[in-house]
User: Fold Kazal-like domain-containing protein from Leptosia nina.
Amino acid sequence: MTVNICSGHVDGAKLEEECKIADICRHDQVPMCGIDSCGEMRTFIDTCDMHEFNCDTRKDFVQKPVHECWVTCKRGRSFKKPAYGEGCDLENMIQ
Assistant:
């Protein structure tokens, strides 16, 4: 069995853009849900928090409607959805 790893990391212009947004963003404390290219979901304090996290960790989280996050998900907690994009790590898949 072959398991492909999805790093969900960004470099170059996309990372630079995330860091610029993080530097000028004003926190509004409105919780939001984010998902990366590998299907990992995470809650953030607000969109600025997501951009800071992406910049610091070279991740590619994008905003999703908050109702798409699980009710039990706590701020900053990360979890995997049962469905993954092509090439993502399947070892944490819920079965």
Observations:
- The two ends are 17 Å apart (CA to CA).
- The chain is about 25% helix and 15% strand.
